[in-house]
Known about the structure:
The chain is α/β, with parallel strands linked by helices and 747 residues long. It folds into 4 domains: 46-262, Rossmann fold; 271-441, 3-Layer(aba) Sandwich (Rossmann fold); 464-604, no CATH class; 635-746, no CATH class. The protein contains 25 helices and 30 strands. The strands form 9 sheets. The protein has a 6-stranded parallel sheet with strand order 7-6-8-9-5-10. A 6-stranded parallel sheet has the order 11-16-15-12-14-13, with helices on both faces.
Amino acid sequence: MLFLLNNYISxxxxxxxxxxxxxxxxxxxSTINDGYExxxxxxxxxxxxxxxxIEEKKFNPNFExxxxxIETVEExxxxxxxxxxxxxxxxxxxxxxxxxxFLLLAGMALYYELVDDVIIFTGNRSIDLKKQLNKDxxxxxxxxxKFENYLRTINNDLSERQVRDIRTSIYHxxxxxxxxxxxxxxxxxxxxxxxxxxxxxxxAQTIGQVPEKFLNKIGISMDGSTTKLEENNSFxxxxxxxxxxxxxxxxxxxxxxxxxxxxxxxxxRGIKWLYDNNKIIGFNNWKKAFEEVLKTRNHELxxxxxxxxxxxxxxxxxxxxxxxEKYNCDCINYDQKNKIKNDDDDDNDEDDLAFLKFPPxxxxxVILKELxxxxxxxxxxxxxxxxxxxxxxxxxxxxxxxxIGRMCGYHLNDDIQIYVSNYVLKEDYIQKYxxxxxxxxxxxxxxxxxxxxxxxxxxxxxxxxxxxxxxxIIPKDFITVEIKSANKVPIxxxxxxxxxxxxxxxxxxxxxxxHLEGVKKFFKKDKTTFRQTNKKSYKNIPYKLNQSITNKxxxxxxxxxxxxxxxxNEEGSAIIYHINDNxxxxxxxxxxxxxxxxxxxxxxxxxxxxxxxxxxxxxxxIFYGNKSENGEIIIGNGSQPVLLQTDTxxxxxxxxxxxxQAISRSREEGPLITLTKIVSNYSSDIHGYKGIYVSNKIFxxxxxxxxxxxxxxxxxxxxxxxxxxxxxxSKLPLPDGCNLRLSEISW
Length: 747
């Protein structure tokens, strides 16, 4: 029934039908349609803002649209209507009401005739989620009265018949396409004046997967390019609670996308509430933690969930069942083949989790497989107790979209406890997500198609360096053993007593606290070496010691006076110098009355910059852009070759320095995109790639030898080698001394 929309002037229908104007006037003519007379109605005021449409009565989520949804939709439509952005990313936290929000967006985009059709699509293949979204759409537009009530709020001159007809017309122009259906519905997809809502856009985002093929067929680019959208007068709204790769690409590639962060109201219990109230608990061993929970909470009539991934070597389900039997708990499976039906369930309730409406008759453990991740709504949370995620090192989006995300929402259950691996807490996934929700627009955590940028450390820290302490003066009177004996243990004991005594500060005036702490820490290891300066190699030591003490600077003792370290970079020995009478007479008077302690300690370089981990996308996600017709990624528009010298094939030091420089270049900020790898050159002589020539020595050094270890220590990255395939072309024989070819050296 489209008669209504065709018989009145649209609130946005101006001289330019694609231009939205909120200051509108329209008059509905008096006509007869379907046996009833339309009422004349007039709007002479601008579209009311959110604060004007919220009624004073208490908000009822079953029949009304939330103010949060209204504000979010207004922000998106303001960009669409004024042609500022045609592509919007909606970043909405888990269970915060994003479904009603994008359904309202779809309805209002059609109501204002910004578009003629709305396509809601996703790469998710879950049948349960498809049923859930179809049910939500039916409820929002046709059953609950939410959309009708909102229409009455913004235009109270509409008759009941008009409201129902508008609602029905809009409902039929919103199409939901799910998972594998995408490629089967290409011919039915409109390509003009359409709003494309990409639900759960982080899912199946890699090039070559179904969503990318679908988008290519209908001519929509997810990289923020607006050329096609402008030509077809269409819009895109990408929606996810974890749109990490798309947010990074938006910033790094300066894409023309508008980011909207949906802000839930004060009653929302999200990840921040769970974290602040200690509802997220870490474990080192999930089996031990799970058994401890069963011991302490096996008397509660609550539902408890544990998510497992079965393997041939670790039959988790059997282990859990044995524990449940031991602690007198019921244990049931919940997966695609095994659904739970409570005796008290309403037969008309299509929610597969409807059994959660009622408490179990006995303490119950639900073994969960595959289900209940992103998008799944736990409508009933009152009788849920503990939830276990058993994965040890999950990706950030995976763990956030799991039980943590499912327990977000509007509920009053204070007994929820979610157990996750300590790895999740150590990597700060929770805190980083909270920070991202509040401020910032570039995620800093690994996720699907988001990886750690090579060579940049995980958390903010200061570089570790070493330096020699200012020599410590130790009067011989404090040494209780004969100096000639050079007995290590007694000397160590005497020195340790001295540095903790009040005499230390009296003799070593204004001695730096940082050096003293390093000395105290070191002497717990009892590694001391006694050296006398009557050897020729030590002849300048007295002067250097005195100069260091006088100037309060670290001494330059050289190889003879330095503390030695072994190959494993462990701390070396403390050196105690005794200057005999002859040496002191030649250089400095009275030094023979003292011993001098020298030591190399580890310090933090206060002048070094704090380094923060930086994550980047792989370029394999559909949001990256710059792809050729066959899906191959085009990194840049032209390039400037930077070549390895030919001698790097046999000269280890030259190869090391070349790789150092290449890594440094790849980290530099600027307009040029520098790859994190060195690749083989193309040769026109053989019409192919000739490879990177290396000798056996260079290859072993790159693989796990000297170059590999130095690069790892300096940049905190690991080199990766890829050998050339196939036989060596006779036109390009290997140079002398080389017997290997690599296709790339990456990091």
